[in-house]
Automatic annotation (TrEMBL), chains A, B, C:
Source organism of this protein record: Marisediminitalea aggregata
UniProt entry tagged with the keyword Endoplasmic reticulum: no
Domain Aspartate/ornithine carbamoyltransferase Asp/Orn-binding: 159-314
Protein's UniProt name: Aspartate carbamoyltransferase
Entry-linked InterPro entries: Asp/Orn_carbamoyltranf_P-bd (IPR006132), Asp/Orn_carbamoylTrfase (IPR006130), Asp/Orn_carbamoylTrfase_sf (IPR036901), Asp_carbamoyltransf (IPR002082), Asp_carbamoyltransf_Asp/Orn-bd (IPR006131)
Task performed by this protein: Catalyzes the condensation of carbamoyl phosphate and aspartate to form carbamoyl aspartate and inorganic phosphate, the committed step in the de novo pyrimidine nucleotide biosynthesis pathway.
Amino acid sequence: MSSFTGNHILSVTQFNREAIDLVFNVAESMEPYAKRKKRTTVLDGAILGNLFFEPSTRTRVSFGTAFNLLGGEVRETTGMANSALAKGESLYDTARVLSGYSDIIAMRHPAAGSVSEFAEGSRVPVINGGDGANEHPTQALLDLFTIKRELQYNNKTIDGLHIAMIGDLRYGRTVHSLSKLLCLFKNIRFTLISPKELAMPQNILDAITDAGHSLHITEQLEGNMDADICYQTRIQEERFPSQDEANKYRGKFRLNQSIYTRHFQSKTVIMHPLPRDSRTEANELDNDLNLNPNLAIFRQTDNGVLVRMALFALTLGVENLVSQYERDVVWYTNK
Amino acid sequence: MSSFTGNHILSVTQFNREAIDLVFNVAESMEPYAKRKKRTTVLDGAILGNLFFEPSTRTRVSFGTAFNLLGGEVRETTGMANSALAKGESLYDTARVLSGYSDIIAMRHPAAGSVSEFAEGSRVPVINGGDGANEHPTQALLDLFTIKRELQYNNKTIDGLHIAMIGDLRYGRTVHSLSKLLCLFKNIRFTLISPKELAMPQNILDAITDAGHSLHITEQLEGNMDADICYQTRIQEERFPSQDEANKYRGKFRLNQSIYTRHFQSKTVIMHPLPRDSRTEANELDNDLNLNPNLAIFRQTDNGVLVRMALFALTLGVENLVSQYERDVVWYTNK
Amino acid sequence: MSSFTGNHILSVTQFNREAIDLVFNVAESMEPYAKRKKRTTVLDGAILGNLFFEPSTRTRVSFGTAFNLLGGEVRETTGMANSALAKGESLYDTARVLSGYSDIIAMRHPAAGSVSEFAEGSRVPVINGGDGANEHPTQALLDLFTIKRELQYNNKTIDGLHIAMIGDLRYGRTVHSLSKLLCLFKNIRFTLISPKELAMPQNILDAITDAGHSLHITEQLEGNMDADICYQTRIQEERFPSQDEANKYRGKFRLNQSIYTRHFQSKTVIMHPLPRDSRTEANELDNDLNLNPNLAIFRQTDNGVLVRMALFALTLGVENLVSQYERDVVWYTNK
């Protein structure tokens, strides 16, 4: 049992450094189960209510898989068109009812604040799987966990990190939440690269400087950077007044292997919250980076399973019981 | 093994008083598992086909959860847009095929009579999860089970019950089915409160009087009632010729704490089939009733899990084996 | 472990006769579990990613059920409207991400070639559940498995088979794939009955004659045929220039009990890939055939579960371990 047990996970602002350390330690301990070296059934009989009132295949499946890997069952719903919410039911009522059908809930909803409102009516712990422009705390945690792991290969820690964030820093929910979490650490160097129109909001900038971190803001990739992490984001075309404007910006903030070689040191890790747009020539993260071993985007999504397993285990108070309910895996796996 | 084993559950008319007693006794025995005091795997390996050709999140999840709580697996489908039914397949064919993939089926479909037609083709037991305006027997059973349990707190039984039904008694499928089940009991007093346009259908009125029960029909809440149960329903605006008419009726048949205090005794239990509409000021069941301990609406949905567990156990003939396949629950639960 | 272990199943062209024999032997060994005589948990802890980017209730549920019957869990998605693919993500990225959430993937997608492209990015084995007009190998295998089983009742083998294929042989993916598989056997007699406009493609005809099989092509049912199998297909009205044309063809290529009696020997087995259209009078496979014991269409879908179980077991290398993880089934079943 930890301080997480029985509590909701709604926002990155809930986490202090000690809590983050705990989550990450538990996440590391989940690896043998995620890699199918072993099977655990510690959550045998538990039911996850996987409520995606706004569809999101990968986040939904990631939560569901994490719960299955601990031995639990998943009941889920996708979309809102036919839900009682669409017929005028309050989030409170929906929460009272659906929390009677599960032991823990992962929820996504398009409206900012909706998951917290839902949590007030819920009789079981609720994990925020994204509530509109507001929060997506498990994404921020998996991003930070990935940074920690990638740095470890180079014998570095999050303290002292130099991170470059590129692209749409204004509307990109992930970079806001990640920045907030990084503020809990020491001596972080932020290099923020975005068009002025898509600059990081002032409240995040204030949080960074208030925490004593170093901040460099620029409108384009410059010179040779010693960033440990390059966190690229998606620029949505609809943010711009015209297609011409969008194309101009696209060119300036895209990343491919030759741009990477020109601007980053050979160990800089490339991250992105995904999905990336692969339809156009000049996309934000070119496919030619797929051969670059520093491209960590798929390690990010893999790490998401570990982090979500950790949050389930902590919230349901079994983080120390997992190995007691262990079995052998007898089927083929190359995980 | 009981008389339920291997049989379909299609209509409330299948039930006599003995059958109801059996279902309710089994439902009571399910509580330790539903409350996660214990885990059972009696249905290990069984597969529920949860076929919601008409979407209904809460009923679908309730069936699925009930099956998981007995140790079974759930395969499901939602909607009809992409189904073979939409391509001209008969319900018979759909049933032959899908019953090959499961051990029991819970089915909802928008067309009255469709579930029975489907059941004729099915090679496994089918439980009606609602077929349009026709039947929704598990809702009626959970309503009656809730009445029984709520009365028990006051040392009362269903025999001798005074129930007030309010609102749309014409189109409200739940009040029809519940009335039919109540006809199997003794000395029931029905007070039916609705606009004339939405009065209880004659065949239900006949069934009530034929069974020797007492019947009082009125168009508005009157004086001080000694009802044990106040069963409120949703009045759908589209039933009325104009928004003005709808508003007038809304005002007359709504319930909030002050109306409750004025018209009901302090122990009257408030029920509603849910969802309730919380968008408007004058909704049918005001949120200020949430603090009223007699508001049983969420106990109703909780009881639905028990009743559905009971029906699964009886239909699959394991009602006496559940505790033989018991395990401890080791994870946190506040159920 | 077999040659299947860890490999994708994308096309019928992957199979030689030895591989087919292996799949069918394993499929036969699955029957006690599919019929619920026994339960196995050999895939305990394994997760199937059941990714139906093109919806198909029965194929999706059949894959999911097959995986559950081996003890595994299923995470799934239906449709593409809200997927990352719709936002411009490449199949490669989708595969990299989603293969991190599962141990094996069954996938359907509307675009020909998409499943193979996805498989290149996947880190786990992928089974093609249908990629548009291209391939649907598990359907072809279950069709062939059904032929083998049906012939066995008459002490016959696939070698020496006489099969009549009727209807839309041009666009019908199933008859193409089945024909390719049959080319691996000996002395097959093909009678192909279709309107000229919907004739079997030349490449399939070539494959049949190259393999030394006998071929008879005609535009209508003739005389009395000694076919072992009559494989009927659906003629889609939209293939024809006008409703009149469609009706004319419908009449010519439909099958009902009296046409069956007139043209086929009493042991001819009737197959169809389903769904069949039951809305019109003159449908391709009349409901009056439901009483004909040679109508094998529902044995086909039942066999699909066995074949899919076999493919999962082989791909995950547990085909010889299934019975080691056996338990009793204690609940009612009439399978």
